[in-house]
Amino acid sequence: RCINSSCPAIVKGTLTHWASRNALDINGLGEKIVEQLVDQGLVTSVADLYDLTLEQLVSLERMGHKLAQKLLNAIAKSKTQPWSRVLYGLGIRHVGSVNAQTLAQTFPTIEQLAQATVTDIEGIYGIGPEIAQSVWGWFQISSNQTLITRLREAGLQLEASTKTRALDKTQPLTGKTFVITGTLPTLKRSEAKDLIQNAGGKVTSSVSAKTDYLVVGEDAGSKLEKAKELGITQLSESQLLDLL
User: Each residue of 67-112: pLDDT tens digit?
Assistant: First the structure.
């Protein structure tokens, strides 16, 4: 089994994932094209895609001028894909498209995510220790740091758009951190989490000094005790809805 990230089989898998519909959605960059690009030494990482020329693509089997231009256009268009899709496209172990959205929402720039500790990452609601360790570990690898630099130079979106961030700043829960405990009267926990995040707030899984609010339902456990010790404001479901 090939485990070296520069081994051709792994490079091919990485490129195919990068081009997939939920990632950068590069139409026309299928497995057969990827195979030729890697086998001919034209591409050894996803960053190389953004250096490809028309001449190089035309040299591929069954790739006429028209198809080559279409592929170049699709690669260029992928530079407009949002930060969450780029993060998913990086193919970090255990990071699916939903987790990538959660991470991109919590860390609006790739630099913020790269500087986060395992504790920072695993504190996010829905992100466990396995994902946190995997994300943190990915950013420690020097070849991945080089990749980020190259992707930035190529013009990829490695941060939330200014429009998104401006919207976030005007939302009612911006900058506030919530923890949810117990069973809420009408909302599922996932629904409460979505409401908070859509209003600009952040949901973490454990209570700490950084927590602003604890949303309390029935059968609240140790989190309620800890919140009382730390003097954290407790909210009922209806009080939470009033904040929105």
Answer: 999 999 999 999 999 999 999 999 999 999 989 999 998 899 999 9
Say yes or no: do domains 83-165 and 171-243 share a fold.
no
Could you identify the residue written with the tokens 């360790």?
Answer: 133
Sequence-distant (≥ 6) Cβ neighbours of residue 22 within 8 angstroms? 85, 88, 97
Average pLDDT over residues 141-153: 96
pLDDT one-digit tens code per residue, 216-242: 999 998 999 999 999 999 999 999 998
Closest CA to 213 of 186, 185, 241: 241
Sign of CA dihedral 16, 18, 22, 25: negative
Q: Is residue 180 a contact partner of residue 192, using CB atoms and an 8 Å limit?
A: yes
Name the CATH superfamily for 171-243.
BRCT domain (3.40.50.10190)
